[in-house]
Amino acid sequence: MAQKHKRNVATLDTGTASDWNDDHITDFDNEITHDCNLVGVAITDEWDTAQTTGGAAPVITNADNHVWVNLSTGATTDQTSCMRHEMGGAVGNITYINDYPILTMAMRLEAFHTAGEVFEFGLIPSATAEFTANQDGAYFRVKDNKLYAVCGDGAAETEEEIAAVSLNQDKYMHMRIELSATQAKFYVDEMETAKKILTTNLPDADLTIKMHAQSKNNVDTILKSDGISLSRLRVH
After folding, report:
1. Quick one: which H or E segment has residue 149?
2. CATH assignment of the domain containing 181
3. Fewer beta carbons within 10 angstroms: which end of the chain, N or C?
4. Which of 81, 87, 83, 107 is nearest to 46 (CA)?
């Protein structure tokens, strides 16, 4: 679901702010936008947590007048806390590369050990086990204290470093993945210029929204998000 204009205008036509605001309607023809609701609903209404192993199942937390979803692994090595999106109360995939999906997330890396692979989040097949090597998908990875852009096609993957990361105790990172048939663009905070553009090992499987946290060196790994939105084409 997107917003579009009710009328066509010529180049350089001008109008008032009220003209502009009144001129938008909901468009069901071309695009669906799904904002994941973290307020007033149980996490099980939109998310499945069955892939969690050893760690705590993700929960929606309300503290300091703020609502977020919280993934916590516990302080034992190789425990996970995982969530994958549901539609209509059932797990499954909700998009594909030819839908031109755009996933936008607000993410906070609250706790993790600086050695090892500790986070992955983005567009990944629903049934794929967490932290599977060369998995289909376009997603962010945190490993050895660095943030990576990753694309995989099930047989091989492309992984490119974006930047070193640190604990973001008071800051959410604004992150976006724009996936098309020819490339995957990865944005962090600044949404006009992609930090990485990957063109190899693009996913060729159906995808959904997934977030995984994994503990290393007996340190609790904690991932939080307070905003998740996916838009994609209805026809292709």
Report:
1. strand 146-152
2. 2.60.120.200
3. C
4. 87
Is the residue at 222 inside a domain? yes
Instruction: Tell me the β-bridge partners of 205.
Output: none
pLDDT tens, position by position, 216-236: 999 999 999 989 999 988 765
- Sign of the C-alpha dihedral computed for residues 161, 162, 163 and 169 taken in this order: negative
Alpha-carbon distances, residue 20 vs 30, 31, 103 (angstroms): 21, 21, 27
| DSSP tag of 190 | B
Instruction: Tell me the whole-structure pTM to 2 decimals.
Output: 0.87
Tell me the pairing of strands 102-111 and 90-91.
unpaired
Nearest to 226 by CA among 54, 3, 26, 64: 64
In a domain, 27, yes or no: no
CA 41/CA 57 separation, integer angstroms: 16
